[in-house]
Amino acid sequence: MGSNLASAKKVQHVLVGGVNSPVRAFRHVQAPFVILAHGAGVSVQDPAGHTWIDFISGWGALILGHVHPVVLRTMRSALSRNWPLGLSSPYEVELARLMIEAVPTLQRVRFTVSGTEACMIAIRLARAATGRSKILVFQGAYHGHSDSLMAASTKGIPESLGDELLRLPYQDLQAAEQAIQQQADSIAAVIIEPVAANMGVIVPQIEFLQNLRRLTTAHGILLIFDEVVTGFRLGLGGAQERFGVLPDLTTFGKIIGGGLPIGAVGGSEQIMTLLAPEGNVFHGGTFAGHPLVMQTGMATLKELKRHPPYRRLERLGAQLEQGLLLQANRSGVPIQINRIGSMLTVFFSNRPVRNEEEVLLCNRVRFARWANVLREQGILIPPSPFEAIFLSAKHSESDIKKFIVASAHAFDAAGKA
Ligand SMILES: *Cc1c(COP(=O)(O)O)cnc(C)c1O
Question: Scanning 7, 190, 330, 343, which has its CA 20 to 30 A from the CA of 223?
Fold first, then answer.
């Protein structure tokens, strides 16, 4: 770890906080940050050669693991022909087609370079479609860092944009119903992570999503599912297929790029054709639909269709959940595990965790000890209590067992906090 520390210090002279995305700074676990030099399968390595079994999985993007051979082969052959072509290519058509086939509500797709942009465009479309301006979001959700969706949660955004945002507790149907009934005429959209992944994992009651669908339909409000994480992770059709609740617009990112930067927004022909050049809602991008990214995305979605990993991931996820619960119990440390399929969060609490308020009541010192001791034993999880542990198709039963074994020490250490 010594050389890691040294390079971490050097890095801070050129990068703000040593990172390009704050969570990577390990401040939530009060530890020096790790720099990774490469990854393969489920293994990641720092420049000094320390290796870990990776459970960050590219923050969910790498459902096939690091450098999957099929994706790599595609990337290699694309590399020699497909730098930005400057015009449309067959690959964007093909990736869009793969998504439309898999996801129930997609008729048209527009590609962006990030999930942030996808969510930004989704609400722009909703505002144009409805002629209204307010957006209802849920506390603890993350929909990227566009001004509209980050208003009132970071410095540097005009207060007036905060007035356009209604922020309600996740899963609080009464609050949502009241807000919608009182302000329907000014609400353009409700945007929600159909499984929350950015305050740790919270799986909502299906009834909550069903009721949001009912209320938004009744009041002419668009329902946007942010499936940047859940898309192609909870199944090929994402959360909407799994729960049978159908949004008007859906945003994607992470998995659909096969490990390269991407975002997408999709929905009905009627709404999507409001986008330029068919309509007058602008979105464009130099790198939007980048042919290299389109092909790694295609290779990934095809591989997911050919060898769907979801049943196996469910089994491994359940094994990990049960093993961790046993170890925590043995250490006498109360925890809650929120899990769906291959994504889960361990909350240090003796009560259910259903919204941001309950997330913030959890013991973060214990989480930090747990995460840090796991890391000392070769298990790398997100260095924050507000993130999800992600499994990939490359994780084996033996990887899960190693995690569970390492967690014995880690829970003991957490218990002393
Ligand atoms: C990661 C994420 C985003 C933002 O995607 P970027 O590609 O990082 O801009 C949006 N929504 C959710 C739910 C995410 O997890």
Answer: 343
Using 50 as the pLDDT threshold, list the residues of the chain that sit under it.
Answer: 1-2
Instruction: List 196's β-bridge partners, or say none.
Output: 202
pLDDT tens sequence across 44-103? 999 999 999 999 999 999 999 999 999 999 999 999 999 999 999 999 999 999 999 999
- Is residue 226 flagged as an active site residue? yes
Concerning whether 254 is annotated as a catalytic residue, the answer is yes
Token pair, residue 249, equals 């617009």
- The residue whose two tokens read 């005009």 is 158
Residue type, 162: G
Residue closest to 387 by CA, chosen among 29, 65, 9:
29
Active site residue 91: no
Please work out whether the CB of residue 293 comes within 6 Å of at least one atom of ligand 1.
no
Max CA-CA distance within the chain?
61
Helix (H) or strand (E) holding 340: strand 336-340
Catalytic residue among 54, 226, 248, 399: 226
Q: In what order do the strands lie in the sheet with 222-226?
A: 108-112, 263-267, 249-252, 222-226, 187-192, 134-138, 165-168
Q: Which atom of ligand 1 is nearest to the CA of 253?
A: 7
State residue 1's pLDDT score. 44
